[in-house]
Design goal:
- The chain is built from 15 helices and seven strands.
- With 353 residues, the chain is α/β, with parallel strands linked by helices.
- It has one domain.
- It starts with a helix and ends in a 15-residue tail after the last helix.
Amino acid sequence: MTATLLEVLRAPDRLGRLGPADWDELLRLARHHRLLGRLAAELAAHGAEGSHPVVLDVLAAARRRAAAEQTRMRFEIDRLGRALAPLPGPRVLMKGGAYLLAGLPPARGRISSDVDVLLPRDQLAEAERLLRRSGWDPVYEDAYTQHYYRDWMHELPPLRHRHRHAYVDLHHTILPLTHRFRPDGAALIAAAVPIGDSGWSMLAPADMVLNVVAHLFADGDFADALREVVDLHDLLTAFGREPGFWDELARRAELHGLARPLGDALWVTRALLETPMPPQPWAPRPVRRLMLAALTPRPPGDASAALRAVRLALYMRSHWLRMPPVMLARHLAIKAWRRLRPAQPLAASRDST
């Protein structure tokens, strides 16, 4: 029955033909994979008048929650824009915030827990000062976490508003500085495009795709990442209709050193969601089978020993790519030791946007 979620994501018009047992499984899977709001949006768009009233109630509630959270997100983006107004040059929204403000397909029913902003690295200190003056405070203040983010990562330590508890992450590129793949943050900003008259910009279409690719297929945790694959499917489907997009995507992937993760992402996304794309020169890479197994939707707790091993292998792979061996060993040792002191967590426990 796990195929049902993939089937309705591929062809939402099938919603009207589902029986009670299908809906029961579908709602469980969609909630587990943070896609209940998306399912509600598809129901509203395609209709399933014959569905059980309980199904309609559940999805109506999901739709209202998504609408409320998106209203909150728009407000936070507006507050951030006001706070960061003194900065020169473009302020680039990434991922969930950009999808929402630009009205892109991934925004349908999507709930984001934070706002991601991309700025030139030499503007980060001033941006942080402006935000702290406007009510955003550091989530972590201990020396090691500050060092971890400021010296090694692609972003500053997260900030949280002291009254509204909204999170913002200030980025200067899309992968850690220690990563084996090295996207060009300055090139990402230089190619950004305005979002109407909002005062914000977003990544260019090819770079927006590559941001998702980098986040999941070069640096991600595959245990609960189906929503990112859906984002990727939506972006590729929408942008892929534009003349020259696929050539530009390949060119930008080479520029940012992400050609290999892009190949993995395209293979997996097509395998899961039948994403339309031009014929690709698929190179044999066994890791793609592991990614496909890890990303195939399953009910909560339904993980065999083999699947847990696959997820562990991919988790270890992401860390191996993220840091050189000696640095990684030291970091993991410190992380393990700090788990004994839960009052001082190493990293934020928030949903990704």
